[in-house]
């Protein structure tokens, strides 16, 4: 079975267990989730609710214990390590709370990294990275290293890196967790802009006002979806 | 391009921590320095022995015939020395017979020599001088070039004239103020006319020649010979080694016949050439070259273990980086490759430093000694390849540790 074109994410009874010593921890207890193209989804929930586990599975950093998962019409729940790496490279763009840039590389080089692993030739790589940095408003900071950039600028570099390979989905894990409120608003503004241009975004956060940017909020509790509410489109766009 | 990225990263690492990198690579640097310099020096000694030393004593493709051995290779043999002390003298007639019968002779000469306490011109004197009575062709055979004036001519020999060609050390001492050509000097109790001077030779053996006076054999025979017609040395030069080897057999046959030696009786004369000396040197050489790989590999193994250690620390320090790379699409083999390239680059840089240090050391030895030391290109290649292999071998374990990391754990690593 192949899901229809417009379903970017489709999971079916997704479970994940961890062995913690002699005990088995059920981090996810059967999650059914559908995310369509150009949706803007916030995942919320208290710590231990399975947010991170779900994000890792969706981002193909981990494989589920049970259930099935299609990402952009491809079943990825049974792929091996090398194939998962390819999916992470082509289909997923990560933005982390702690930015996770390479400290010794310039902004441009950081953005180039996914293209290096995709095997893109050097010249094209540089051009595409420059375009991606321009798109997040950092055209004049390309040759700066992360420690020469502000927190907001670093998160913009990370966002450019996440998008440079045109992924199906942008996954953001507490993207404003390390930023002050002004800069947070700036980054969320950037996300809104990307969404308006058609990007599918999945955001993990525990802050209500950050989640308010999304047009759909999923509440997790004890490894299950507790609530899944869509806001009116008008309200979401505002 | 991932390849260049790896090399670029390794070079950044080197630049960021110059001192640490130096100590990391010390083992490899020492190993390769040792390899390069020892090979350069041994080859330099080789060339020196082959081209300068051995041939300076015996000449290229030259047989020297003496009453007894002049050069002893290996352990002193007292019994043999005593036996050779009873050997008969060689005479001019022996030399003439050899010249007439030995095939393939290119240059031929004989000589006798004596050491005199001094030579003198007025108040100028030079002590401890070697006077050589050379046959026609002697200077030519020895390859001694005239600096000033002339060599001997047939008339000097025919009339037994008291003429001399003097070494540069004697010329400098006796004639500090003027040209020696045409001047008279006192050689022992006799007066000789200087007709030529020899080019300065210098160096290990040249010093003796620079303090020599050469006179025609007939004059020597009359003025200095203890036993007339005895020649101390007969020298035969051939065009190549093959002809020399053939000539050696003929010389032996002629002399045995003249000395009426029956078959089975040992030679009562000595035929020597550079070959003997070279054989002995080859033995020493082989021992040196056999010990070299052991010494080099010890330091390379030690160096490799240090590199492995540093790479393990590096993998730990950069766990987060590895996680990031995996999250954005690096496969395990990309990570493996990155760390392998990094350790190989480090190690090759160490080897390159070793090549530079080794070459410098070789230059120092070259400047300080008469040895023609020069770095062998193949040893540079061997050094660099060894560096590469050490980097790959000892980088394999740290690299596989890096590649086996779980991306989720690595990303959360503080």
How much helix is in the residues of chain A?
A: 25-40%
Low-confidence stretches of chain B: none
Spatial order of strands in the largest sheet of chain B: 3-4-9-6-8-7
Query: Could you please say which CATH topology of chain A applies here?
Result: Rossmann fold
* Adjacency order of strands in the biggest sheet of chain A: 6-7-8-3-9-10
Helical region count of chain A? 8
What integer is the average pLDDT of chain B?
89
**Approximate strand percentage of chain B:** 15-25%
The parts of chain A where pLDDT drops under 50 for at least 5 residues are none
Largest sheet of chain B: 6 strands, mixed, barrel
* Number of separate domains of chain B: 2
Kindly list the characteristics that best describe this protein.
heterodimer; A: alpha/beta; Rossmann fold; 6-stranded mixed β-sheet; 4-stranded antiparallel β-sheet; 29% strand; B: 414 residues; alpha+beta; 6-stranded mixed beta barrel; 16 helices; elongated
Notes on the structure:
The complex is a heterodimer of chains A (238) and B (414). Chain A has 8 helices and 10 strands. Chain A has 238 residues and is α/β, with parallel strands linked by helices. Chain A has one domain (37-62, 81-237): Rossmann fold, CATH 3.40.50. In chain A, the strands form 2 sheets. In chain A, strands 6-7-8-3-9-10 form a 6-stranded mixed sheet, sandwiched between helices. In chain A, α3 (107-118) packs across α4 (122-135), α4 (122-135) packs across α5 and α5 (151-163) packs parallel to α6 (181-196). The model of chain A has no long low-confidence stretch (mean pLDDT 90). With 414 residues, chain B is an alpha+beta fold. Chain B has 2 domains: 2-53 and 278-412, no CATH class; 62-272, no CATH class. Helices cover 59% and strands 17% of the residues of chain B. Chain B contains 16 helices and 12 strands. Chain B has a 6-stranded mixed beta barrel with strand order 3-4-9-6-8-7, surrounded by 4 helices. Chain B is elongated. Chains A and B meet through α2 and α3 of A and α1, α13, α14 and α16 of B.
